[in-house]
Design a protein that fits this description.
The structure holds two protein chains of two kinds.
Chain A (H helix, E strand, L loop, with lengths): L15 H22 L3 H19 L2 H6 L3 H10 L1 H35 L1 H14 L8 H7 L3 H26 L3 H10 L3 H39 L4 H10 L3 H29 L5
Helix pairs in contact in A: 4-12, 5-6, 5-8, 5-10, 5-11, 7-8, 8-10, 10-11, 10-12, 11-12
Chain B lengths: L15 E10 L2 E11 L4 E5 L6 H9 L6 E6 L2 E2 L7 E4 L11 H12 L5 H14 L15 H14 L4 E5 L7 H17 L5 E6 L2 H7 L2 E6 L4 E7 L8 H6 L1 H24 L1 H9 L1
Parallel strand pairs in B: 3-8, 3-9, 6-7, 7-8
Antiparallel strand pairs in B: 1-2, 1-4, 4-5, 9-10
Helix pairs in contact in B: 2-3, 2-4, 3-4, 4-5
The chains are: A mainly alpha, B alpha/beta.
């Protein structure tokens, strides 16, 4: 009975070709659209968020209306207070840069020494384990009480916060310098100082940079938190000041602006890193 | 051509002597009772299977490991650590990746002669690069080079150290056959033209390489590493690769080495407890 039925797959399908041509064309269009969208997902998300923000501002009523300044309002406030924000950036950077650079210098130096010296490693390992996890923000009130000026204490807090990740990462990197570099350095007869400076420092630099990335992000957090406490200028201070006056457009503008500055700073560090680590493959 | 097992002659003043050297690691004996006399200006091939401790032997000579027993005398003085009189080339990693070729070589030059100015160092580094066929590439970084080129630079750097001894730990082991042959010939060319004559200790597990390059081949057996034989190769130099590899004498030497290694393997089997107990059972 069933012998007579020809299996479906043996039948020629004459209509398939033109159809598949049509499918191909629409598929091509879809692919072209995909290609345009690929790489701009971030932009699309950003536009979506701004639209959402706009919707929030538009449809909130009463005091909420007041709490959600619309994107144009915020942009206007940002433009109006740009001179003040730029001044604030300058004041903030007078704290951030010395504190951070001090942390980079001491963190790398100390990290290299500790990472390559067995007894220092034994001494510092337990100490670092206990001291590093202390949230650096907790030092702020004490630092303000201890040090004469606000700037000094804020620099100190930024330094402490950025120091630990840089130090710990560098020490780990220095301790893990491949044995072949050590052998090579010994064959070449390098002195200890030369070995540390010309071999261990560059060899552990990738680790140092990951510590520096974490350290920079922490620095911004600590900086703005410290400024909330007692500054009379700066980015954190700007936000706190206009929050006190319930000037939310300016406050939100300050938040957006601080985010931008943080992003730019991280990007600058990333560029420096890529440049310094060109040899990493 | 002779194949001899003669005991080493008394140490010449500028050679290198391994006197009953042994070395253990984590309770495992890696090298046992190594007696070896390396003559000044000689090209010595150290041939052995993996696990025969040939690399360890080189590290001991270099001074980056310390023997557990015995002593190593280099030019009349006991080896207590690394020294710039013994340059070394490792298998696959002899350059610092963050320094360009010029800087890599200049580092060695600065250690060999502390009184040179930066400019003199540079021009000298350029000469060493030219010597290994890489003239004008001083600004390149190791990651921009092929494996063969990197090993050329590693050789240039070892030469730049100006050491009378050149220790090479399977330097061409990671290279393709064509590059390997080229670098072998380059090495022999540099070695035979160096003045004063350099002493080369060349570790390899490649029988043909050991025979083609060496004035003498010392064969190591494994577990623990010890000398199981040695062959003197008085083939005239320069050797033609083609003629050499097809010469009947060469085939005889090859057979002799295989014989030594095979004998050694059988002896080891016979002294092995498990095997012995089976034999007793039979």
């Amino acid at each position: 009975m069933g012998e007579q039925t020809v299996p479906a797959e043996y039948k020629p399908a004459p209509e398939r070709r033109p159809l598949s041509g049509f499918v191909d064309r629409s598929r091509l269009a879809a692919r072209a659209l995909q290609r345009i969208l690929r790489g701009s997902e971030g932009l699309i998300l950003a536009i979506g968020l701004v639209l959402l923000w706009q919707a929030f501002a538009q449809f909130s009523t009463g005091q909420h209306r007041f709490l959600f300044p619309s994107p144009p309002e915020t942009a206007k406030a940002l433009w109006a207070s740009l001179p003040e924000l730029l001044r604030g950036t300058w004041y903030s950077f007078l704290i951030l840069i010395p504190g951070y650079l001090l942390a980079v210098a001491t963190g790398i130096l100390w990290g290299i020494l500790v990472g390559t010296t067995a007894w220092l490693q034994r001494a510092f390992h337990p100490f670092a384990k206990v001291a590093a996890p202390i949230p650096p923000t907790i030092y702020i009130p004490y630092a303000i009480a201890l040090l004469s000026t606000f700037r000094m204490s804020a620099i100190f807090v930024v330094f402490i916060g950025a120091f630990w990740p840089i130090f710990i990462n560098t020490a780990a990197g220095a301790a893990a310098v491949p044995g072949r570099y050590r052998d090579d350095a010994r064959i070449l007869g390098l002195s200890r100082a030369e070995y540390l400076w010309r071999i261990v420092f560059p060899a552990s630099l990738p680790h140092s940079f990951s510590g520096m990335g974490v350290g920079l992000a922490l620095s911004f957090i600590l900086l703005t938190v410290a400024e909330l406490f007692g500054a009379n200028a700066g980015l954190g201070r700007f936000v706190q000041y206009y929050a006190d006056f319930a000037d939310y457009p300016k406050m939100v503008a300050g938040i957006v602006y601080t985010g931008l500055i943080t992003f730019i700073s991280m990007e600058v560090l990333e560029r420096i890193k890529r440049r310094a680590l060109f040899w990493v493959r | 051509m002779t194949a001899s097992k003669n005991p080493p002659s008394p140490s010449p003043p500028n050679g290198l002597l391994l006197d009953r050297v042994s070395f253990g690691y984590n309770g495992v004996v890696v090298l046992e009772d190594i007696r070896l006399d390396i003559r000044e200006g000689e090209f010595l091939s150290l041939l052995g299977p993996s696990g025969s401790g040939k690399s360890t032997m080189l590290r001991l000579i270099a001074g980056i490991e310390t023997p557990g027993g015995g002593r190593i005398i280099c030019r009349g003085e006991a080896v207590t650590g690394p020294g710039t009189d013994r340059g070394m080339v490792f298998q696959d990693y002899s350059l610092f990746p963050w320094m360009n070729l010029m800087e890599n070589i200049s580092l060695a030059i600065s250690k060999a002669n502390r009184r040179l100015s930066k400019r003199e160092q540079r021009s000298l580094a350029g000469e060493y690069l030219a010597m290994v066929g890489l003239a004008g590439l001083g600004r390149k970084y190791p990651f921009e080079l092929s494996g063969g080129m990197r090993q050329r630079v590693a050789i240039a750097r070892a030469l730049a150290l100006g050491s009378p001894f050149l220790l090479m730990d399977e330097p061409f082991g990671a290279l393709d056959p064509i590059n390997r042959a080229r670098l072998q010939d380059l090495l022999i060319d540099i070695w035979s033209h160096s003045k004063p004559a350099k002493t080369v200790v060349f570790v390899t597990h490649d029988m043909d390489e050991a025979l083609y390059l060496g004035d003498r081949v010392v064969i190591l057996g494994s577990l623990p590493g010890h000398v199981i034989g040695e062959l003197n190769l008085d083939f005239q130099r320069p050797r033609s690769r083609q003629a050499f590899l097809t010469a009947p004498e060469f085939q005889v030497l090859r057979a002799r080495i295989l014989d030594l290694l095979g004998q050694h393997a059988i002896e080891r089997l016979l002294t092995d407890d498990a095997v012995r107990s089976i034999r007793e059972g039979i």
